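We were asked to recover a plausible sequence for a given structure. The inputs and outputs are reproduced exactly as logged, with field labels preserved.

PROBLEM: sequence recovery
POSITIONS: 235
GIVEN STRUCTURE:
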């Protein structure tokens, strides 16, 4: 879905090209007109979920729900994941953490604790980029397949304008008191980062880490794995 993706759409386009994966750009108006009937998966990259929802309108919302309910796959990254939550089109009964409860300004590479799933095939060191993840609020995790949880932020990542390596030396408690917001990346540790669920007959995968990061080998590997998993004949 190209609409309201901004820089994240360009990143996704470039990464998919680099990974050699088949895809087509689709607009909200195309979805409203029934174009999803020609596809097996809808990939929604980052951007503001509220803007995407507004662009789709009630008709686009209904078309996506029908598409997934009848066996189509949905892959949402960051803002695309937010679109599928309860505050969006509701493909999965997941909410966003309240702003005051999350680390709002983390960006950069972070290690993941991954499960035994085809998504991670051929990934030796699961380090990926996250850019201001909103953090999932999941009441009952047993209803979902948590494919990955956040691990340790890498020293060259940032929390607001603080380098993670420097923040560890200075002390996060001091910095949080000074800034008045949550900054310590350890607050992310153990939180769900990639979640799988179902809506009707369709598969839904929502990720707070960016598998659509250009030039990243791990991202390209995971995207190829996702294409195989979510699209019949995706090879």
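RECOVERED SEQUENCE:
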């Amino acid at each position: 879905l190209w609409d309201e993706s901004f820089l994240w759409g360009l990143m996704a386009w470039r990464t998919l090209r680099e990974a050699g994966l088949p895809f087509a750009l689709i607009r909200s108006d195309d979805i409203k007109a029934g174009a999803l009937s020609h596809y097996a998966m809808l990939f929604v990259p980052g951007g503001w979920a509220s803007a995407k929802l507004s662009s789709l309108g009630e008709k686009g919302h209904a078309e996506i729900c029908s598409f997934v309910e009848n066996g189509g796959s949905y892959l949402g990254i960051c803002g695309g994941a937010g679109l599928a939550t309860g505050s969006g089109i509701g493909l999965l009964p997941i909410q966003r953490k309240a702003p005051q409860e999350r680390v709002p300004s983390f960006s950069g590479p972070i290690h993941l604790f991954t499960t035994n799933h085809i998504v991670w095939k051929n990934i030796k060191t699961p380090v990926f980029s996250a850019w201001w993840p909103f953090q999932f609020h999941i009441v009952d995790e047993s209803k979902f397949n948590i494919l990955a949880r956040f691990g340790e932020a890498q020293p060259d990542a940032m929390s607001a304008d603080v380098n993670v390596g420097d923040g560890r030396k200075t002390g996060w408690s001091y910095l949080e008191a000074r800034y008045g917001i949550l900054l310590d990346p350890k607050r992310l540790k153990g939180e769900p980062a990639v979640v799988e669920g179902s809506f009707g007959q369709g598969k839904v995968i929502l990720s707070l880490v960016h598998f659509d990061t250009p030039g990243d080998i791990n991202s390209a590997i995971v995207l190829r794995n996702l294409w195989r998993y979510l699209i019949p004949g995706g090879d």
